[in-house]
Amino acid sequence: MISKSFFSGFCFFNESELFDEYIIRNDFTISGFSYGAIKAFEEALNTQDRVDKLQLFSPAFFQNFDEKFKRTQLMYFKKDENTYVQTFLNNVIYPSNKDISKYFKLGTAQELEELLTYVWNEEKLQKLVDKGVKIEVYLGADDKIIDSLKVKEFFQKFATIYYIKEKGHLL
């Protein structure tokens, strides 16, 4: 039995209910949102427990951005984390106006650096597929955090992609 089935996004805590219309809750499904998608992927890859499905909601995907962009994001966070996080959260909820305050947990510079520099590895994705894990990737067409078209293009040979019009990072 898998001890943890949902992994939270950067600056989020316990937000899985936001994905209730998509999420599959059982002992053999692992899911994660944004930064949590990285954690969910690594859990699925490294666990010895049975995993049938991996659900990645708006996976943090920044390998298509240059190092200057990543350094700048970290610099702005370290300079004024409150302003950075407020802008970030406004971009996360776009185009909706959902109140996400009850899910807020201030992220750390270390977490931000990890999500910005994480590289999704095709060999590792293929390893999961070869183990029989079905991967689903959920993307909002109007995402202001990641380039959802680039993410779709990257994951399409490993996963079923749900590309949702008029939705952002939070789906």
TrEMBL record:
Which Gene3D superfamilies does the annotation name?
alpha/beta hydrolase
- Protein's name according to its UniProt entry: Pimelyl-ACP methyl ester esterase BioV
**Originating species:** Arcobacter defluvii
